[in-house]
Amino acid sequence: MPPAPAAAESRPGPSDRERGDACPGALRLHPADDGALARVRLPGGLLTDRQALVLAGLAERWGDGALELTSRGNVQLRGLPADSGAELGDALRAAGLLPSETHERVRNIVASPLSGLDGRGYADVRAWVRELDQRLCASPAAAGLAGLFLFALDDGRGDVAALDADVTLIATPGGGALLRLGRAVTARRVAAGDEASAALAAAEEFIAAAGAKAWFVRDAPELVDPGAEPLPPPTGTAPEPGRFDGGLVVGTRFGRLSAAQLRQLAAAAPELRITPWRSVVLPGATGPAPAGLRTAPGSPWERATACTGAPGCAKSLADVRTDAARALDLAVEPGAPVHWSGCERRCGHPAGAWVDVLATGAGYRVTAHRMSGPTSQDLTTEQMAEAVAEARRTT
Ligand code: SF4
């Protein structure tokens, strides 16, 4: 099964362009019901052990004691005091996590998380990540990108290429890459060495063409030249939790890592790679698996996501994460992607075939999006677990 695509994570619609981009950042905190929220961009999901320890300390000192992993391989601190922005910024800057104040919210770059570790793929895309990040931060035009505009750098295995990014680079045999814009089924060929500059140029072209009309390439595909090379659909999969020759992949519950768990991960490897599937790759890790995290495939928690819900979001009709956790702990096998939402907005839902579990105020509406069309049932919270397990088996 292809990986659950990352997220329509509260994407604004095209008509929201004129109202401005409210996407949170490390310096622009978002006022949530459980306190202020800061989103720290991690290009390629890359984090050193030292930086992970800094984030763990910040989560304990200012936040709710945990870190949230996002579907763009970034991290969030929640429950912050509204006036903690300046000190937070200083700490992130000192740790090398805030290289640009003007561009901090546009450094959204996902990359194949096992690149260079498992002998697959045609390039180690970490070099592309670093170069693109530097070029992005040096481009005045790029500061105008939306805070959810996404670059995906795929090493050729087709994993992050499935994420519907605005600009996607896919490494090709022998060097170079194919560059795809939005959901185009064709691509441009890019010579070896030009990958990062071509990705940035494509984004700058989009800004120049779209102006005030659209936030994302998918909203204005007519404004971009898709290229002429046919592109087959990506077939890669998200890395499964467990050991592999190059290290360890660790799965989380809805992307939450306590400060203590983060310290355990930092002790296990000098580099952490946060994946768009809210797991963590620990290159070279050989020691004992961190407690309380998934380190084997086959769990019902795979491909299971949930929005923030209550008490963090005022719009939510239920504490969806608590209800979802109870349902997943009762299940015995993984299945189709499933997403719990506290309201119709369905923040962070996957694309493709998935099971939609929506809080109604009286329980949950479980909708299976099948090829034959959607089928829905309105259920109590107690009935929901069984219906979700059945829908995941048959979707
Ligand atoms: S309750 Fe609605 S608005 Fe709040 S996080 Fe969930 S889906 Fe988004």
Keywords:
single chain; 395 residues; alpha+beta; Sulfite Reductase Hemoprotein, domain 1; Sulfite Reductase Hemoprotein, domain 2; six-stranded mixed β-sheet; five-stranded antiparallel β-sheet; binds iron/sulfur cluster
Number of domains: 3
By secondary-structure content and strand pairing, the structural class works out as: alpha+beta
SSE arrangement, N to C: EEEHEEHEHEEEEHEEEEHEEEHEEEEH
The portion of residues forming beta strands comes to: 15-25%
Compute the number of strand runs: 21
Whole-angstrom Rg: 20 Å
The geometry reads as globular
The small molecules bound here are: iron/sulfur cluster
Major β-sheet, in short?
Answer: 6 strands, mixed
* Number of H- or I-type helical stretches: 7
CATH topology label of the largest domain: Sulfite Reductase Hemoprotein, domain 1
In the CATH scheme, the class of the largest domain would be: Alpha Beta
Poorly predicted runs of 5 or more residues: 1-9
What is the strand and helix layout of this fold?
Layout: E1 30-32, E2 35-40, E3 46-48, H1 49-61, E4 66-69, E5 75-80, H2 85-94, E6 109-111, H3 126-138, E7 151-154, E8 167-171, E9 177-181, E10 186-190, H4 195-210, E11 229-230, E12 242-244, E13 247-251, E14 256-258, H5 259-268, E15 271-274, E16 279-283, E17 304-306, H6 320-330, E18 338-341, E19 355-359, E20 364-370, E21 373-379, H7 381-394
Parallel strand pairs: 6-7, 7-8, 17-18, 18-19
Antiparallel strand pairs: 1-2, 2-5, 3-15, 4-5, 4-14, 8-9, 9-10, 10-11, 12-13, 13-16, 15-16, 19-20, 20-21
